[in-house]
Amino acid sequence: MNRVLLPKNLPELWSFLENEPEARVYAGGTDLLVQMRARCADNLVLICLERIAELAGVREDEDGFWIGACTTFRRLLNHPRIREQIPVLAKALSTLGSPPIRNMATIGGNICTASPAGDTLPPLYVLDADLILSTQSGERVVPLSGFITAPGKTQLERGEVLTQIRIKKPEGYRVQHFEKVGQRKALACAIASMAALVKTSPAGVIESARIAWGSVGPTVVVSPDAEAALTGKTLSPAVLEAAADLAGKAMAPIDDIRATAVYRRRVAANLLLRIGT
C-alpha cells in the first residue's frame, strides 16, 4: 500500500524529503496517479503539495508574474491579468483536459512531467519562463528552455522542488497565438501544438518572433531559422510558408497511435500559416 504525506508548509516538506529521499512529489496528481495505476505501483511514499499555501497563487510586479508551482489551471484561467497580459498561456490552459482536470492539474506538474505533448510548455518557452528550484538550503533559477532534457527527464535534483515560475510581460508582442491539433476538440493529447509571439512595427514589419512547437520532438522544438525568416518581413502567406518549410526541418516527430511522423511534421509546420488569423 502506498503512503501519502501531506506537509502543511515548506519546513514540513523539507523534513519529509530529508526522511524519505526516494518519495515521489506531486500536486494535482493528474499525471502521476494515472501512471501509477497503469503500472500497478505499490509501496511507494508520496508527498502531496496541495496543502502548502505558499506554493499556489499569482503575484504581479512591474516586470511580470510570479506563479506558484501548485497553482491550478482553473485559478490561472480565472486570473484577469493572466488573460490580459499573456493570452498565449491562457489559450493553452483552456485547451487542456476537462473542467475537472483543470480544477486539479497544476502548472508546475505539467512542467515537471516533461511530456513532449505538455500543453503549457510551448507558451512558456516563447515567454522565456524561468523556474525557481528550491531545497531546504536555498534555491536556484533555471530557464525552462534548459530544464527538460528528454521525455520525462528534467534537471530536478534529489530533494529539490519546483516552487515558482517567473514570466516577464511580453511587452510589444501584439500577436500572441496558440493552437493545438488533436484527434478531437476536447480531452485530446496534442498531435502537434504551437505557440507564437510576434512583435511588429507600426508599419506591420515583424521586429521579433518567438515560436515553439510541442509533440514534434523529444522536447519542445524551436527553429531560429524560421524566426529569422520572419524578421524584417510583413505577415503574408508567402512569408509564413517559407518559415514553415524551415520549421519542419527542425522537427523530429515520431510515429505513434495518434499520428505518423510525416503527418505531425506537416501539421505542425502548417500551424505557422494561422498566425495573425
* The CATH topology of the largest domain: Uridine Diphospho-n-acetylenolpyruvylglucosamine Reductase, domain 3
Domains, number:
2
| Secondary-structure element order, N to C | EHEHEEEHHHHHHEEHEEEEEEEHHH
Could you report the average pLDDT, rounded to the nearest whole number? Answer: 92
What structural category do the secondary elements indicate? alpha+beta
What is the approximate shape? globular
- How many strands appear in the DSSP assignment? 14
Q: What does this molecule look like?
A:
The protein is α+β, with helices and mostly antiparallel strands. It folds into 2 domains: 55-168, Uridine Diphospho-n-acetylenolpyruvylglucosamine Reductase, domain 3; 175-274, Enolase-like, domain 1 (2-Layer Sandwich), CATH 3.30.390. Helices cover 33% and strands 25% of the residues. It has 12 helices and 14 strands. The protein has helices at 10-19, 32-39, 73-77, 80-85, 87-94, 99-104, 107-113, 121-126, 144-147, 224-230, 237-250, 261-270; strands spanning 3-5, 24-26, 45-48, 58-60, 64-68, 130-135, 138-143, 148-150, 153-154, 161-168, 175-181, 192-200, 206-214, 221-222. The strands form 4 sheets. Strands 4-5-10-6-7 form a 5-stranded antiparallel beta sheet. It has a 4-stranded antiparallel beta sheet with strand order 11-12-13-14, sandwiched between helices. Strand 13 (206-214) and strand 14 (221-222) form a beta hairpin. The radius of gyration is 19 Å and the shape is globular.
